[in-house]
Amino acid sequence: MEKKITVIKGDGIGPEIVTEAQKVLDKVAEKFGHKFVYTDILMGGCSIDKYGVPLTDEAVEVAKNSDAVLLGSIGGNTSTSPWYKLAPNLRPEAGLLKIRKELGLFANLRPANLYPELREACPLKDEIIGDGFDMMIMRELTGGLYFGARKTENVDGVETAVDTLTYNENEIRRIAIRGFDIAMKRRKKVTSVDKANVLDSSRLWRKVVNEVAKDYPEVELEHMLVDNCAMQLVRDPKQFDVILTENMFGDILSDEAAMISGSLGMLASASLNDTKFGMYEPSHGSAPDIAGQDKANPIATILSASMLLRFSFDMDKEADAVDNAVKKVLEAGYRTGDIMSEGMKLVGCKEMGSLVADMI
Ligand code: NAD
């Protein structure tokens, strides 16, 4: 199969980690008889330096004309970089918001799982971890409180701020369908998280999710209030398969899930639209403190490339091969600095990428 991948290396460690993910994709192409054609575009600080804006319209067009986007990370040191003296709409992160909007990426997927080899990095007690956990957080990305009307005004001499949380049934339905589809590829359980005891938007959420569930009789559906979910994540994370939730709840819960997984350097993510198209990137930032030193952990980006194969190209066998290669490299005791523990073998970003590619 021939596929076009737009590559956004970005800033900081971005170029280093994406290069390693491409090394792994190239090995997949060779082994499984595919051809991946890459086109590089600039986004973030590097685009500001060259074009004066964090993302050009031409770059968006390239992304739109491809089958998927692989992104490293963007941004610099927010205290010292000149990029953060610019107006907010010209800063690196504005490029990310623009590309999400232009590509209609409304579904954010963040897996949170624990590798047995990295148990020590998990802050939970052994009896809670048990045999580990493996969940997928499906967060709505373009609606809710972060996109509703907001204002700050003086009401009768008192400064007052208002944010609006709006969802319509179509926005809920399309993300719910995505959540159930993903559950069908996994352990067939959806936990829909809301605050239906208080919020109207959550009551509509629950109603629409129940409707969608009727089309997926094999999937077990449960509803959970967001405050309970925050507790259950640290009390018994094994119970979760797919967590389906709105924008702000997902923002907070996915960071909590990242924390219990141990290392930021291991966590992949995907943002999808209503076709097979998606943008795939690690959950971490551009780590300017270690950029250019061959110290970055490329695994989150390699696992993002695996999600790209699975969700945009329907290449499940190939994605499994990448996931297994990562497991084998960890089992063999290789570690980058961020996941290093006593008795393990310390390797740099390039060597870690080569080790994973060689295991495929
Ligand atoms: P960060 O995730 O870049 O780094 C936090 C800490 O984790 C640092 O000590 C860093 O060295 C370490 N770290 C992160 N990824 C690592 C990896 N792969 N291997 C080893 N160590 C790793 O967060 P930050 O320092 O708060 O942000 C730095 C920049 O990244 C900022 O400009 C921020 O806006 C940006 N950012 C971008 C994205 C994105 O591109 N989607 C996401 C988050 C932050």
General description of the model:
This protein is of the alpha/beta class. Helix content is 40%, strand content 21%. The protein has 12 helices and 14 strands. A 10-stranded mixed sheet has the order 2-1-3-12-11-4-5-10-8-9, with helices on both faces. Helix 11 (316-331) crosses helix 12. The longest helix is centred in the N-terminal third of the chain and has 19 residues, at 14-32. It is globular, with a radius of gyration of 20 Å. The protein starts with a strand and ends with a helix. The relative contact order is 0.17. The structure holds nicotinamide-adenine-dinucleotide. Nicotinamide-adenine-dinucleotide (NAD) is lined by residues 13, 73-76, 78, 93, 96, 264-265, 281, 284-290, 296-297, 300, 338. Nicotinamide-adenine-dinucleotide binds at residues 13, 73-76, 78, 93, 96, 264-265, 281, 284-290, 296-297, 300, 338.
Short synopsis of the structure:
The protein has helices spanning 14-32, 45-51, 57-64, 92-102, 126-129, 169-184, 200-213, 226-235, 247-261, 299-312, 316-331, 349-358, and strands at 2-10, 35-40, 68-73, 107-113, 134-140, 150-155, 158-163, 189-194, 220-225, 242-245, 268-272, 278-282, 334-335, 345-346.
Biggest pleated-sheet summary: 10 strands, mixed
Mean pLDDT: 95
**What compounds sit in this structure?**
nicotinamide-adenine-dinucleotide
Total strands: the figure is 14
Secondary structure category: alpha/beta
- 3D shape: globular
Count of DSSP helices? 12
What ranges have pLDDT less than 50 throughout 5 or more consecutive residues?
none
